[in-house]
Design brief:
Blueprint (H helix, E strand, L loop, with lengths): L16 H11 L2 H14 L3 E3 L21 H7 L3 H7 L10 H10 L6 H12 L11 H8 L3 H11 L12 H11 L5 H9 L1 H5 L3 H8 L3 H11 L22 E6 L2 E6 L7 E3 L1 H8 L4 H38 L1 H4 L10 H8 L3 H8 L3 E4 L2 E4 L6 E6 L5 E6 L20 E2 L8 H13 L9 H10 L2 E2 L2 H10 L5 H6 L40
Length: 522
């Protein structure tokens, strides 16, 4: 083996640590930026926050209306005004378990001893989110440290409380108790609830009709009656605090131009600390001077990154507003748009656009939208036969270009007349319109909806129709047929129906040819 050395000239592009940090800051939302600057503020003496950070604004207005009575007038008229002013910055306490309070209030404290009251509180804590008590009696007795008969007696009292069906062990018991509360004692309906609830939920109507010797129409009426019951007792009594979206950007149309305002005043106004600048200039210690110089460069770097972030995001959102002008003006639906479309307008790379919109909310005149949801587009591709077919190109804000998706991605809809893609919101409206005008007795399948859309000039695949139908909360054709008002054609043969009448009209019986006469001899 011969060993030798050689010189090779190559060129590589490397990203410095500062560039990586700058890209991270660009991808941050306002809350993440605030946390990042707060950590740097604690570690860097050269960074100073000028004044207190303002609370985040929503809807372009302050969170609290102006007080019609100034502080000095309240001090003169109310002795509690000073205390109220001092308690305003306090953080409110977490909301208590209101569901548990409502349940225990119905029991009445004076009717139960201390130990039984504590057992009732323990059983309330064992409820799941739907209001069901799925724990076994023996397991609850071991957890609380009492006899199983005490748990059973307490559960018997708790099951009598409102809402009806609470503390049931499963859905069948919950629905049965609601039927009993309404005075419904139909044996067929109770049999469906007790023994065939899984068949009804899965759409196996034939199994119910054969087991109970009922017709399909009767079973469908029972299904409509069950649909009026509450499958989750605590569905109307769920507790929780309303979570508001704080937009990162505010968009307004002023004097024929889009104005983008970053909603980051509450993040804080940071600047260079002049005190330490003078200390660095007057210091004779080289180590201290080097330390201050390093911190000064880091502080300037962070401030420059924040300003570049604001400029890039504002430029990106302004380009998005120009493309989606009709949507923001509430004059139409979204138009197909990819990262490359915005990148071409602002002369930047699609990955930069992806970082600029990542996790950020935009508030405009008619609502608040996640910037990532505005990027949906189709890419038309020539097939070997020369026909133009759409391929999906979803720009989800992850740095992918429109052409980087695999060919296995589901196609979106596109206008067959113009060759331009349509947005999912437009396809949603068209599917809703098709389903609205269908025959309730014979609803359209996903394939039929796809053909109906093709007749309107919109090419959309069956699986995309199924995907959008699920997103819109529309049931499949079988479920819509069973729940449609009015009589429906029988799809299952009941047990007492003669077989001669069970033949479907869709498959007519073939006509029997007339018998041929036998030739007579001679």
């Amino acid at each position: 083996m011969e060993l030798y050395t050689s010189l090779t000239v190559s060129q590589r592009q490397l990203i410095s640590q500062n560039q990586v940090q700058s890209l991270k800051i660009l991808a941050m939302n306002n809350q993440e930026l605030r946390d990042c600057l707060s950590i740097e503020y604690l570690e860097n003496p050269m960074l100073e926050m000028d004044g207190a950070a303002e609370p985040p604004a929503r809807d372009g207005y302050p969170d609290q209306p102006a007080d019609p009575f100034p502080a000095h007038s309240r001090e003169l008229t109310s002795p509690w005004a000073r205390e109220d002013l001092a308690r305003q910055p306090d953080i409110p306490d977490r909301p208590k378990n209101t569901v548990k309070q409502d349940i225990m209030m119905q029991l009445g404290r004076k009717h139960y001893p201390k130990k039984q009251w504590a057992l009732a509180e323990y059983l309330c804590d064992c409820l799941d989110d739907g209001g069901f008590f799925t724990m076994g009696i023996d397991e609850a007795a071991r957890g609380f440290g009492c006899r199983p008969d005490a748990v059973a007696a307490c559960l018997k009292d708790l099951k009598r409380l409102e809402p009806v069906g609470i503390f049931s062990k499963d859905l069948s018991e919950c629905l049965e108790r609601q039927l009993e509360d309404r005075g419904i004692d139909d044996p067929n309906l109770l049999a469906i609830v007790r023994n065939h609830l899984a068949d009804v939920m899965d759409g196996r109507i034939g199994a119910v009709t054969r087991a109970l010797r009922l017709s399909t129409v009767e079973v469908r009426k029972y299904m409509l009656q069950l649909g009026k019951l509450n499958p989750r007792p605590l569905m109307v009594a769920q507790e929780g605090k309303t979570q508001y979206i704080v937009p990162d950007l505010l968009l307004a149309f002023v004097d024929g131009d889009w104005v983008v305002t970053p909603n980051d005043r509450w993040v804080g106004d940071y600047r260079i600390n002049d005190y330490y600048i003078h200390m660095m200039q007057g210091s004779s210690d080289p180590e201290l001077t080097a330390y201050f110089r390093e911190k000064l460069e880091r502080a300037r770097f962070y401030l420059n990154c924040v300003e570049m972030r604001r400029s890039t995001i504002a430029k990106t959102v302004r380009a998005i507003a120009e493309i989606q002008c009709d949507f923001f003006m509430n004059r139409g639906d979204q138009v197909p748009m990819s990262l490359q479309d915005v990148a071409d307008r602002i002369q930047m790379h699609p990955s930069t656009v992806s970082r600029a919109i990542k996790g950020k909310y935009l508030q405009y005149l008619h609502g608040t939208v996640l910037l990532k949801d505005l990027f949906t587009a189709t890419r038309l591709q020539e097939t070997p036969k020369g026909r133009r077919q759409p391929r999906a190109a979803l720009a989800l804000g992850s740095g992918m270009d429109a052409g980087s998706l695999s060919m296995a991605d589901p196609p979106l809809a596109f206008d067959g007349g113009t060759g331009k893609g349509i947005s999912p919101s437009s396809a949603h409206h068209m599917i809703l319109d098709v389903v609205k005008h269908e025959d309730p007795v014979n609803p359209l399948s996903d394939e039929a909806i796809s053909h109906a859309m093709a007749q309107r000039g919109i090419s959309i695949s069956r699986r995309t129709v199924a995907k959008y139908r699920v997103q819109l909360g529309i049931m499949n054709s079988d479920q819509r047929k069973y729940l449609a008002p009015g009589p429906a054609p029988l799809r299952q043969t009941s047990a007492h129906t003669p077989k001669a009448h069970a033949r479907s009209s869709a498959a007519p019986k073939a006509p029997i040819p007339p018998a041929r006469k036998k030739p007579t001899p001679g």
